[in-house]
Amino acid sequence: MLLRLDKVQRHFGGVHAVDGVSLEVEQGSIQGLIGPNGAGKTTLVNVITGYVPFQSGHAWLQSDEVTGLPAHRIAALGMSRTFQNIRLFKDLTALENVVVGMHTRRRDDTLAQLATLPVFRRDQRSRLDEARKLMDTVGLAAKDIGGRPAGTLPYGDQRRLEIARALALRPRLLILDEPAAGMNPSEKQGMRDLIERLNLDGLTILLIDHDMRLVMGVCKRVAVLDFGRKIAEGTPDEVSTDAGVIKAYLGTRGDKEVSSAPGASGVGDADEPLEATGGADALEPTDAFLEVRDLTVSYGAVTAVRGASLRVAAGEIVALIGANGAGKSTILNTLSGLIRPDSGTAVFDGLDLTAANSSAIVRRGLVQVPEGREILARQTVLENLELATWGSRSDAATTRKEIESVMKRFPILGERRALLAGTLSGGEQQMLAIARGLLAKPRLLLLDEPSLGLAPQMVDEVFSAIEEIHSEGTTILLVEQNALRALEIADRAYVLETGQIRLTGSGDDLLHNPAVRRAYLGG
Amino acid sequence: MDFFIALFSDPVGFYTSHTLLIGQIGINGIVATSMFLVLYSGQLSLAAPGFMAIGAYVSVLMGLHWHTPGAINMLVAALLAGLVGFLVGLPVLRLRGVFLAIATIGFIEALRLGVILNVPITGEGLGLSNPKADPLGGVNFILPSFIVIVFVIWRLTKGRLGNAWAAIRQDELAALSQGIHVARYKMVAFVISALMAGYAGALEAHLTFNVDPGEGNFGVTRAVQILTFAVLGGSGFVLGPVVGALIITLLPYVFDAAGPYINIVSGIFLIAVIIFRPQGIVGRGGLAIIKPSWWPRRARVSAPTPG
Amino acid sequence: MDQQIVNAIFIGSIYALFAVGYTLVFGVLDILNLAHSAVFMLGAAVTYTLVVSYGQSFWVACVGGILVSALMGLVIEHVCLRPLRRRRAPPISALISTIGLALVILAAVEQGKPGSFFAWLWKDGANAVAFPVSTIPNPTWHVGNLTLEAVKVAIIPIAIALMLLLGYIIRYTQVGRGLRAVAENPRAARLMGLDVDRIISLTLVISSALGGLAGILFGVALGGISPYMGRDQVEVRGLAIIVLGGMGSVAGAVIGGYLLALIEVLAFITFNSSVSGGVAFAALFLVLILRPQGLFGTRLRERI
After folding, report:
1. Whole-prediction pTM value?
2. Rounded distance, CA C11 to CA B93, Å?
3. Which of C90, C239, C298 sits opposite B102 (nearest CB)?
C-alpha cells in the first residue's frame, strides 16, 4: 500500500467538507477520485498534502505517517501534486519551473556559488538537461518553449509543465488535481495517454477529476465522493453503473432511465455525424433579441471561446450546455460587459455589448445572475434586494412595492428579509440572486449555473421558478452543467465544447440526440 | 550637465572632489541591494532604515566607548543588525503583503521614536557625535564593499537559494509543493538583508560627524526613498535597485536647476514609472513580482476563470 | 489626569475622523491611500493660506480647504488609481503611486516661499505656523480642575456628528449601499448595474474631504501647520488605527482612533513624552503579530 487514508475529517464552519474518508492506493496503480463539484475532492487532497490541517484521521505514505506534517515536508517525502487552478511560476521560464522541482534533490550550493564557477556550471547544465528530458516526457518541446515564461504558454502546455515540475521531485506518489480541466476532448485524450505512460514507467498516480470519461478510461480503481463522504468504490464499470453515483450526478429524476453517469464521452468525438434533427438553422429565429456572431474571447494565453455564434429571440428560453471549462460563463461575462472579446459581435436590442459599459447594459435590460450567486453575504436579504434597485429611476414607494412583489414570488426571502444573506442555504441564496436579477427589470435574463451545488429538491424549486419567470414574458438564456434539466425546459439549446458551439437545435431534439445523451445525460 | 563633463574629462579629479557623493552612492547601492533581496524573495519589507540605525549607532558607540578599530565596529554592528532582523522576523514574516510592510514601518518608527530618541547613550534627539568620522577616506572602504556585496547577492540568486526565493516570490503555496521550506528561506533573505542594511548604516555613520536620528535618516521617509530605488530600477535583477539608487542620488546633481524641486520630480517619477513601466528601468519581472496574493483581500471574486 | 482624558477624547476625535477616510478607501478599493496624510496637511495649509494671505474669514477658508481636499480626492482617483485599474495592475502599485503623489504634494507645499512658484499655495516654506489668534473666537473655560478651550471642545461634537452622518449614509442610503456593495464584491455590483467607477470616485472624494477637515481641525486647535504635519502627526498613526480597528471597518476606525489617543495619553502619563511617540508604532506592531485583522476586520485566507 503506497498511500493509506484512514477516516480523514475536515470541516469548515458547519460544512463537512471531508467526512470520514478512508482510502487505499496500491503501489504502481492509478487510483481515481471523482465526485460532483463541491464533493470535497480538492479539500481532501489539500489535507493529505499538508495545506489544510487534519481535524481527525490519519494518512500514511508507505511507512511514513504524513498526518499533520507541513506541506513542504510531505513534498520532500515524495508526495508531489498539481493544482486545480494551475500554479506555475508564471514569470519563470518553463525550464526554470521544472528546475525548481528539483529543489529537494539538490545540495545546498551557496558556497559553491561564491567560490568556483565551473563546478556550478556543470551542475546547472546537468539540471537543465534533466529538465529538458522531463519536459519531453510530458510531451513538451523543450527546445522551442523551454526558455519562454511559463505564463505565456498555451493552456494545455501549462498543465503538462506543471506535471513535469511535479515529476522533477522524483515522487513516490503523484497527485493530479483536475489535470484536464478546460481541455477539449482531443487534449483530454492526450492527457490520458500521458498519465498512462507515466504509470507504465512505474509511477503511482492519484487522479482527481469530475470528468467521468477521463477517469474511467485510465484508472484501475475509482472512489466516488459526494458531500464529503465516500459513496462508492470499485472498478470504473462498477462505479459508473452504481445507482448512488448516478443519483449524485443527476439528481432525483425518477422517470428517466439512465444506464450510466454522464460525461462518459464528449459530443465532439461521437461516431455519428452531428446533426440536430430538423435542421438547426431553420430553428434559429430570424429576428433576434440577442445576436452573437463569431465571438472569440481569451484570457492571456487561453482562448476560452472561439468563434461562437448564437441567437435568442424575445420570449424564448435558450439553454447553453457544456462541460466545466467549456466557455459558457465566459460568454455570459462578455455579454454583461465584464470582459471584452478579441473579436466578434454581440448586440442586444441595438446595443453593442462589446463596447458598452456594464451599467448601461443592465439599464438596457440584460441582467445576469452570476455563477456562484455572488450575493452580498454581509448584507441582509432586504439590503441585497434594495441594492438591485440602485439604478432605477422609480421613487421609494414604487421600489418598495417591487421588492414586496418579488418577495411574494419567493416567500422564503420575505421570511428571511432581516437575516444576513450569507446565512441562507445555497438554494435560498440562489433564489435571492434570481430575485435580485428580477428587480433590475430584465428583458433578457442570463442565468449562470443556477443549479450548481444545490440539493436535488432545491434544483426542482429553482427550475420551476425559472419556468414561471419565463411564462410571465422574460426571455431567458440559461447556462447549465445539468443538461437534463436545462434541455427539459428550453425551447432551443446550444452545445458548447472547448469554446466552440458544436450543436444546436430545439430542446427536445437535443434531449433525444444520442451523442448528447451519451455526453451529457448518461446512456 | 557640467557634472557629466567633469566626470568624463577628468575621472580621477572627479573622484577626489566628489568623494562624499560617491560614498553616498555606494551606501545607497548597498541599501538598495538589501531591498532587492527582500523583494526578490517576495517580501515587502520596509525595515531597512531600522537596521541601518542599529548599524550606525552600534558601530559609533563601540568606537567611542571601547575604542575598537573601525572595521570591527562595523562588522559587529552589522551582525547585531542581523540578529535583530532574526528576532523581528520571527513574528513578522508570517504576515503577507501590505501587512508586512506596515509591521516593518511599525518596527522602524518604534525603534526610532521609542528607543533611539529616549536612550541617553544615543544622544537622543541631538544625534550622536562621531569625532572619528572619515568623510574622505571612507570611500575607499565603501566601493569595494559595495562591489563584493552585489557580487555575492548576484551569485546567491543564481543558486539553489535564489531559485527557491524566486519560486517563493511567485507563489508560496506552489513552492511548498516542491518541498521548499518557505518560512526558513524567507527568514534567510530577511536576515541577510538586515546584515547588509546594518553594514550600510555603519558605513554611513563613518562618513558623517553626527548620526542624525531624524525621520529622513532612519524613519519612514528613508524607507520610502529606498522603496523608490527599487521601483524605479526594477527588482527583478540585482542591479535594478542599484540603478534606481544611482539615478535618485545623482538627480539633484544632474538637474541642478531642479534643486529644490527634486522631491516633486521624484514623486512624479514614481507615479509615472509605476503606471507605465511597473517593471522598472532594468525590469525583468520587476514590480510585477509582487503578486496580488500578497495583498490582503476579503473573499472576492477574482477575474473570471475560463469556463 | 482628567485633563489628559479630555485631551485624549478631543485628539481621538481628530484621529478617528482621519482614520475613517483611510479605512473607507481600503474597504471599497482594497487599497491603502498613502496620499491621505498629505491631504490632511493640504486641508490645513490651504485654509491657513486663505485666511492669512487672502484675508478670508475662517468659515469661508474652511469651506475652501474642504473643497480643495475633496478635489484632491478626485486627483488621486484619476491620476493614481484609475490608470492602474485599467491596466489590471496589482494593488501594490496603487500603494506606490499614492506615495508618489504624497511626495509631490508635500514638496509643493515645502517649496511654497515668497517669490517661489508655489507661493500662491503656501508662503511659510518648511516652518510650522498657527492660525492667528483672531481667526476664531476661542474662550477658555475652567470647570472644576479642567481647563477647556472652546475650540478643542467643539471639535468633539463636530467630529462625532460627522461620523454619525457618515455611518447613516453608509447604512441607510442608496449611495451607502452602493459603497458597501462595491466594497464587498465589485463584480456582483457591476452585474447589478452599479457604476463602479463613479462609486469609487465618490469614495475618494468623501474620504479626502474628511481627511482635509481633520487637518483643518487639527490646525485650528493645535497649530503646528507645516508641510510635515501629515507625515508627522497622522501618517503612521492612521495606519496604526486602521490596523487596530480592522482594515475596512468604519466602526473600527472610529473606536481605534479614540483607543489610540487614550493609549498615548496613558503612556504619556506613565512614562514620559518621548516614549509616547513610539506607542502608536508599538501598538501597530503588536496588533499585527497577535491579531492582524484588528478588532473588526475579517480573517484572510487564500484559496488553494
Report:
1. 0.83
2. 33
3. C239
